[in-house]
Every structure is written in structure tokens, then in C-alpha cells.
Amino acid sequence: MVRLNLQYNRVDNLGRVVLLVTPNQGSEAADHFSDSWLIDIHVPTAKALGTGEKSFPKSLIAPYYPIGIIFGERKSIVNDPIIPGDDDGLVSIEATKIDCMTDFIILEVGHSMMRYVTEVAEQAIEFAENGALKKITYDQQLMLYLLIRTLVINILKGKQKENSQIEIAASY
User: Fold this and answer.
1) Could you tell me the CA-to-CA distances from 71 to 21, 47, 119, 164 in Å, in that order?
2) Are 118 and 156 in the same domain?
3) Which residues lie below 8 Å from residue 169, measured CB to CB, with a gap of 6+?
4) Are residues 38 and 80 in the same domain?
5) How many domains does the chain fold into?
6) 82 and 155 share a domain?
7) Are residues 68 and 87 in the same domain?
8) Which of 3, 7, 119, 145 is buried most, with the most CB atoms less than 10 Å from its CB?
9) Which residues fall within 8 angstroms of residue 114, CB to CB, at 6 or more apart?
């Protein structure tokens, strides 16, 4: 909806725009369920979000502003026959991407939960302020893993000491 609004209402000093799991190329799930009576009753606008050349997403022009896309991935085999590749439960990763995007990140969160996750908000603010989404490098991931591992080991050692002291005290 943001892209449609900005297509017809140009804002010269707009700045940056963040899209959350927007089906920029359409949604394979919308294609799959397009003939379902449930779509007609519950979500008639979903029919317009298909992947066909005349679909709503394909009717939009390329944005004139910087775009950061935040994608939420939810692993599930249930929708594999419907949505090819990795997806968030409704939209595939590839359907979210757009040629002129400035940045892109995948977070581990399902489509409908995006609005409730703090990391999503933090990433959106990061892009709005700095023009880039905050990536964690492999080295940072490794350091974080080692830090957490060390903390867990120390906590477990502390529990062993506590348990030993409790056993000694209980024996008197």
C-alpha cells in the first residue's frame, strides 16, 4: 500500500522506506488459493496479490526512494507444495525481493508475527536512520556463540558447586 500511495503521491524529501514481507512479486499462496470460496469470503483482496502479470504487485512502478526489505522466515514443510523455496508461511523470499531494493535481511519470524517482534522494529529504525539493515557477520555470530557457551558452562559449574555444598550441608 505504501508503494501504491507513493506512486501517485510523490514526496520529494521522503527519505527511506522499510517494507515488511511485502509480496513485491506477488504471493504463490494467493495463486494457490485464488479459486477457493474461503478467499472470496474472508480475504477477497488476496486474489489481487497473485504472481500473474496483471496482478496488483506487478502493476506498481519501480520506487524512486531507498527501500529496505525485512523478510521473516518460518520453516515449515506444510506449505512446501504451495510456496517454492524458503518462505514466511505466505510469501517466498524471492517474491519479496525487488530489483531496486537498497538492502534486504531475513529474520526468523513468521509473516503474521513480524509486527510484534522487537528486532523487526530495531531493524526498521536502523534502516530509516542509517540506510542499511544491521547484519551480524559470521565472526560476530561465532563470538556470540562462544560467549553464550561460556556463560552456560559457568552457570552449570556454579550449580554443581551449589549442589555439592547442599549435599555436604545435608550430610551433617
Assistant:
1) 5, 21, 12, 48
2) no
3) none
4) yes
5) 2
6) no
7) yes
8) 3
9) 20, 21, 70, 72, 88, 120
Tell me 45's DSSP state: G
Torsions phi, psi for 171 (to 5 deg): -75, -15
Q: Mind listing the pLDDT tens digit of every residue in the chain (172 residues)?
A: 889 889 999 998 999 999 998 888 888 888 878 777 777 776 667 777 888 888 888 888 899 999 999 988 877 777 677 787 888 878 888 888 999 999 999 888 888 888 888 889 999 999 999 999 987 655 666 777 788 888 888 888 776 555 554 454 444 3
| Residues 89 and 57 grouped into a single domain | yes
Domain that holds residue 143: 136-172
Within this chain, do residues 89 and 164 fall inside the same structural domain, yes or no? no
| H/E run at residue 68 | strand 67-72
| Phi and psi angles of residue 83, each rounded to the nearest 5 degrees, phi first | -115, 115
Sheet of 103-107, strands arranged across: 17-20, 67-72, 103-107
